[in-house]
Amino acid sequence: MLNRLTRGLTAATLIAGLATASASAEELRYAHVGAEGDIQTRYAAEVAEEVAAATDGALTIQVFPASQLGGVAEMVDGVRMGSISMGHHDFASLERIVPEIAVFNAPFIYRDGAHAVAATDPETSPALQELNEQLVAEGGVRIIGRIYRGARHISSNFEVKSPEDLAGKPFRAVPLDLWISMVTGFGATPTPVEVAELPTALMTGLVVGQENPLTMITSNKLYEVQSHVAMTGHMQSVLAVFVNEDAWQALDEETRNTVTEILDAKADESLQWATDSEAELVKEVEDAGMTVITEEDGLDIEAFREAVLAQINEDFPAYTTYIEQIAAVE
Questions:
Q1: Is 7 a residue whose pLDDT tops 80?
Q2: 289: region left, alpha or beta (phi > 0 left; psi from -120 to 50 alpha)
Q3: What's this model's pTM, rounded to 2 decimal places?
Q4: Residue 8: pLDDT above 70?
Q5: Antiparallel, parallel or unpaired: β 189-192 and 170-173
Q6: What are the C-alpha distances in Å from 225 to residues 150, 169, 209?
């Protein structure tokens, strides 16, 4: 009788313990638009794995890559509403909440990839800390990390060495104001296209060129529909990792600290991934038949810099102070 009672109590205690563990477990839905093989896809997958391990499963992250939960606008709206817990994309994807946040994607403002990672640290960047407060207040969204994907370059189905080569031609722009301004500075006609539709748009001639890191060009096999890459390096591609503020505050402080530590370490790793892969990616696109154009081949990067910055300064005068703060980061 006593043994049956003891076994009953033990079973009840175990069931209660499992119920408590289940109730205390948290899950975040993490969406992004990156394709398989892109640095951003590796980043999200490894973050999910490391968070689960570091919290002993108390916090799990379910990743939805490749636009599974919608394009950029749908993802941002989902994070604002809380139907999606977190996501990542260009800082400029949050400009509908705080327009000035797009400054972190402005062309020709970073010295190199290391500077881009340092200047977008949510814990130490004065510019980002100020704008982050506005994001929380205006949209209930907080930036908690960043991803470095490499420098962005121009791909096309013809040779591009200066803005004159793109004059009047339909060129893909990320559907954000900053990109439209930049592509205008290129001399081209901005044509907004979501990334999931880009290969088809290039194939059909809706647009004749686009710009992205080499990782994206290879992972999306754009070499099948583009013949040239101009190594303009006009942007250091750094993405914001952002979270729904209510979902974030629902986590205890220790868990939040664990997540931010993992994201910070992973940002440095993404810089290393991109740096290590640059030469290999150049060879990959050349082996796939693309012609790579550098300054040695006559690429006039300074002409692009002057034209693009003139357009950005005209369209976004409010960026000036933030650009100065970014430039001051060591």
A1: no
A2: left
A3: 0.84
A4: no
A5: parallel
A6: 22, 16, 10
Q: What is the pLDDT of residues 129-162, one digit of tens each?
A: 999 999 999 999 999 999 999 999 999 999 999 9
| CA pair distance 141, 143, nearest whole angstrom | 7
Geometric angle at alpha carbon 205, from 155 and 158, rounded to 5° = 40
H helix or E strand, kind and range, residue 97: none
Lookup: tokens for 158: 């013809």
Amino acid (1-letter code) at residue 324: E
Calculate what percentage of the chain has a pLDDT beyond 70: 93
Residue at 18: amino acid letter = L
Q: Which amino acid appears at position 27 of this protein? A: E
Give 296-321 pLDDT, tens digit per residue. 999 999 999 999 999 999 999 999 99
How far is residue 262's CA from residue 274's CA, in Å, rounded to a whole number?
18
Could you tell me which residues come within 8 angstroms of residue 271 by beta carbon, excluding any fewer than 6 positions away?
A: 113, 114, 117, 148
> Computed from CA positions of residues 115, 121, 124, 126, in that sequence, does the dihedral angle turn out positive or negative?
positive
Domain architecture of the chain: domains with CATH: 26-328 (3.40.190.170)
- The pLDDT of residue 4 is above 70: no
Listed in sequence order, the residues at least 6 apart from 34 whose beta carbon sits closer than 8 Å to its beta carbon are: 40, 41, 44, 65, 66, 216, 219
Q: Are strands 26-31 and 59-64 parallel, antiparallel or unpaired?
A: parallel
Q: What's the number of CA atoms in the CB half-sphere (13 Å) around residue 216?
A: 22
Q: Is the dihedral of CA 104, 155, 232, 164 positive or negative?
A: negative
Tally of residues, the chain: 330
Rounded CA gap, 17 and 11, in Å? 10
CA distance 273 to 194: 25
With residue 67 as reference, give the H or E element that holds it.
none
